[in-house]
Amino acid sequence: MIRVDQAGEFGATRIYAGQLAVMGNRGPHSAEIAGMAEQEAGHRAKFDALMARRGVRPTALQPFWSVAGFALGAATALVGPEAAMACTAAVEEEIDRHYTHQLDALEESGEDPELSAMIEEFRDDEREHRDAALAAGAERAPAYAALSGLIRLGCRAAIAISQRV
After folding, report:
1. Which of 48, 64, 83, 148 could be joined to 141 by an S-S link, Cβ 3.0–4.6 Å?
2. Contact residues for 128 (Cβ-Cβ < 8 A; gap 6+)
3. Whole-number pLDDT of residue 27
4. Which string of DSSP letters, residue by residue, matches 104-157?
5. 84, 33 in Cβ contact below 8 A?
């Protein structure tokens, strides 16, 4: 759980970095994206520390996720601010789903209250990001349904791969 969650938070920081590289600090939603990026960096730092304390190795695919995340962020920002928000909404929807499944499993087992608390806190933040992206016009992005579906599929694949590699 820790490895895949750290990989996801790392990927999120790279997506926002790609978006901000294209949009700069003057684009629509840039301040909001920068705030989300800062929050994701905080999540990642907490997972990094937990990994170090517990001896969990990062995914071997981290260099790939770095490039893929940045490329996804930059590509959606190039399409426009609504597409960047559609990317955020889609990613955060999948992360909400993923974290909810993890919380259910942790609750069922009664194990690891520290990890449960972190995941619950971060899931609430991800939900806020999704809701903010939707409020900022994510659904007005060109081909929103297809774009969102493709990004969500990519997220599910990244989660599955990071759990194993």
Report:
1. 83
2. none
3. 77
4. HHHHHHT--HHHHHHHHHHHHHHHHHHHHHHHTTGGGSTTHHHHHHHHHHHHHH
5. yes
Phi then psi dihedrals of residue 164, to 5 deg = -105, -30
Q: Taking the C-alpha atoms of 138, 18, 159 and 147 in order, what is their torsion angle to the nearest 10 degrees?
A: 30
- Tokens 């170090």 label which residue? 52
Q: End-to-end alpha-carbon separation of the chain, Å? A: 12
Tokens of 91: 């990613």
Q: Is the dihedral of CA 158, 156, 100, 81 positive or negative?
A: positive
Tens-digit pLDDT profile for residues 29-60: 888 999 999 999 999 999 999 999 999 999 99
pTM: 0.92
Query: Which of the 8 DSSP states describes residue 1?
Result: -
- pLDDT (tens digit, 9 = 90+) per residue, 64-80? 999 999 999 999 999 99
